[in-house]
Amino acid sequence: MAKLFEPFQLRGLTLRNRVGVSPMCMYSAVDGLPQAWHLPHLGSRAVGGAGLVMAEATGVLPEGRITNGCTGLWSDAHTQAWAPIAAFIKSQGAVPGIQLAHAGRKASAALPKDGGASLDNSHGGWDTVAPSALAFGAGLSKVPQALDAA
User: Fold this and answer.
1) Which of 27, 31, 80, 100 is the most buried (most CB within 10 A)?
2) 101, 111, 105, 103: which is closest to 136 by C-alpha?
3) What was the pLDDT predicted at 142?
4) Domain boundaries, the chain
5) Which of 51, 59, 48 is CA-nearest to residue 25?
6) Are 18 and 4 in contact (CB under 8 A)?
7) Considering the entire predicted model, what is its pTM?
8) Which segments of 11-61 does DSSP mark as H helices, in order?
């Protein structure tokens, strides 16, 4: 416990302590954009004293999200929506972080509150891609298109 509340340095990054908030998928975004809800959710962790506050799995492409409720970072609008959240976290003495993600074969799912099963493209889903053409779960996921070197 002695080192838990001591600063931690890694290369040019210094955290005020070794308490880090893990990324939590909250499924509260609209079109990949974090909403007003994200500011108090993440900001309160910084106010509470965490040294690092990580934002949830954030898709680098719209098709890379797990659900339509996942956050994204693929346009200037997304950058602008994240900016005040990151600035507030930083203003409270914490370091903002983000978990960049691509859901691969797990993409195109319904929100967990709606069962989490794969969404058909006619019901808001999208085509998925992954390293192989294997579904995420038997009968629960669509088969993704396998990526190749190109």
Assistant:
1) 27
2) 105
3) 87
4) 22-101, 125-150
5) 59
6) yes
7) 0.91
8) 38-47
What is the rounded CA–CA span in Å between residue 69 and residue 52? 24
- Kindly write down the DSSP assignment for every residue of 112-143, as one continuous string: GGGT-PBPPGGGT----EESSS--SSTTTSPP
pLDDT averaged over every residue in the chain = 95
**Residue 139: pLDDT band with limits 50, 70, 90:** low
* Nearest-angstrom CA–CA distance, 35 and 80: 12
C-alpha to C-alpha distance for 49 and 94, rounded to whole angstroms: 7
Given phi > 0 = left and psi -120 to 50 = alpha, else beta, which region is 49?
A: left
* Residue with tokens 């934002």, as numbered in its chain: 55
Per-residue confidence (pLDDT) for residue 10, from 0 to 100: 94
In tens, the pLDDT along 58-78 reads: 999 999 999 999 999 999 999
Q: Is the pLDDT of residue 123 over 80?
A: yes
Length of the chain in terms of residues written: 150
